Amino acid sequence: MGEQASRVAAVMSTSAAIAAAYALTRKVKAATPGEIPQEMWDLVMAMAASLEDIEAALNKLSINVQGWPENAEGLTALRVAIAVTGTRLPFIAVPSGMSLVIKAWALNPGWLQVGNTLAECVNINQSFPLLPNEIVGYQIKNAEDKCIAATVAGCFACLTVEQYRGGGG
């Protein structure tokens, strides 16, 4: 009932705006109170009739959400010790539409450097730095596509990936 009233109010306010524009463009003198010009009444009736057509069209409208992943059913999460010379991440399948999330462990004594290869991750000019407790996400097919190096010994990376069918990828 409230939705119907709000639709009628929207039609009436739109009609009022159109009536004001009509009056200004036609320089029509204001009607006496309670009197509605026939043109205005016809316009309001046409808008009310088209409201049902618009509503029917909106109900038939389908939204294409292609590209958005369906809800995950599980996750894979682990903590990996990172070497100063670089560590290739383990095999973890990343389903289409999901991201590999890498978090530098909060208690790391130094920062991590993320790269595509072992050579890149140890090069400060080619790697992405991750301070302790910082997070980065990558939409890649597999976690082993990334390498991480630590700036000092004793650093860890925490990995997580949402999975379909309990971790099957």
Structure commentary:
The structure is a single chain. With 169 residues, the chain is α+β, with helices and mostly antiparallel strands. It folds into 2 domains: 2-60, no CATH class; 74-163, Sandwich (Jelly Rolls), CATH 2.60.120. It is 31% helix and 24% strand. The chain contains 3 helices and 8 strands. It has helices at residues 2-26, 38-60, 118-121, and strands spanning 74-82, 87-88, 100-104, 112-115, 128-130, 135-138, 147-150, 155-163. Helix 1 packs across helix 2. It is elongated.
Name the descriptors.
Jelly Rolls, alpha+beta, 169 residues, 8 strands
List the topology elements.
Elements: H1 2-26, H2 38-60, E1 74-82, E2 87-88, E3 100-104, E4 112-115, H3 118-121, E5 128-130, E6 135-138, E7 147-150, E8 155-163
Antiparallel strand pairs: 1-8, 2-7, 3-6, 3-8, 4-5, 4-7
Helix pairs in contact: 1-2
